Amino acid sequence: MELPLFRGDLIGRPVATEMHYTKPLDARDEVEDLYDLLSDVKRQMPLIEGVSVGAILSDYQRLRVELVCQKLGLKSLAYMWHRDQHDLLSDIIESGVTAVGNLPGLAVGLCTG
After folding, report:
1. Exposed site from 58, 64, 88, 111, fewest CB < 10 Å?
2. CA angle 23, 45, 69 (to 5 degrees)
3. Per-position DSSP letters for 1-45, written without gaps between them
4. Where in the numbering of this chain does the Diphthamide synthase domain appear (predicted)?
5. What torsion do the CA atoms of 71, 64, 38, 80 make, to the nearest 10 degrees?
6. How far is CA 30 from the centre of its chain?
C-alpha cells in the first residue's frame, strides 16, 4: 500500500499539562504542532476523514489528539484504546509486524548487565 508520509517539526513543548488542554497564551505547546501538521495533511488530502491514534492507556495523549481532530472536523480512531496490553502484544507478534523506531521511554526499567 502506497501512502504519503507527512512529518512536521516539533517546535513546542508540553506547556499545558493538565488533563484537559487549554491553549497557553505565553508559550507554544506541542499540541499546536500537531494541529499545524494535521491542518497541512487536510489541505493536501481534502478527502481525509480521520486519524488513527496509537494511544493504549494515555488519556493525556488521546484527549489531545481528539481535540485537534475535533477542531479540524476529523474523526479520532483509537482502535487500541484500553486493549489488554498482553493480548495486544500477542496480536502484534502473531500478525508478523516488524517495527523499527526510536522510542526514548523504551529504555526505562531495562538493565544493561
Report:
1. 111
2. 30
3. ------------B----SSS----SSS-BHHHHHHHHHHHHHHH-
4. 27-99
5. -120
6. 11
Reported pTM? 0.71
What is the C-alpha to C-alpha distance for residues 42 and 64, in angstroms, rounded to an integer? 18
Q: Are 64 and 71 in contact (CB under 8 A)?
A: no
How many other CB atoms are there within 10 angstroms of residue 72's CB atom? 14
Rounded to whole angstroms, the Cα distance separating 4 from 45 reads 10
CB 23 within 8 A of CB 59: no
Rg (CA), the chain: 16
Cell numbers given for 48:
481525509
Q: For a pLDDT cut of 90, what percent of the chain falls above it?
A: 27
The separation between the first and the last C-alpha atoms of the chain, rounded to the nearest angstrom, is 41
| Percentage of the residues of the chain whose pLDDT score is greater than 70 | 83
Q: Give how far Cα 51 sits from Cα of 41, 68, 70, 79, Å.
A: 10, 10, 11, 11
